[in-house]
Design brief:
- This protein has one domain.
- It has a two-stranded antiparallel sheet.
- It is globular, with a radius of gyration of 14 Å.
- It is mainly alpha-helical.
- It has helices at 5-24, 42-60, 65-78, and strands at residues 30-32, 35-36.
């Protein structure tokens, strides 16, 4: 999907929207369970944007969902510190 200009633009725009809401929206806003909006970061925002895109794609049965889901799982597993409250980090 990295070669698809429209996909990349949509992913980045959604991540920016998530970060804007996290920064200016209600303090109790939650995008990812266990991650307060105030601790949202670029990696988590991109992950969330792709997660939402996959949910939308599943509704229309688009191809490539399995590989995209595997990417989400890998990112969340390998960059765990991006998906938890900063109070849990040293």
């Amino acid at each position: 999907m990295a070669e698809d200009d429209e996909y990349r633009s949509q992913l980045l725009e959604t991540a920016v929207d998530v970060l804007n809401v996290a920064a200016t929206g209600p303090r109790d806003q939650v995008f990812i369970e266990g991650l307060p909006a105030t601790d949202m970061n670029l990696v988590a925002a991109l992950w969330y944007a792709e997660h939402r895109a996959i949910q939308d794609a599943q509704a229309t049965c688009q191809e490539g969902i399995e590989a995209r889901q595997q990417w989400l799982n890998t990112v969340q597993r390998t960059l765990l510190s991006c998906f938890c409250s900063q109070e849990f980090l040293p």
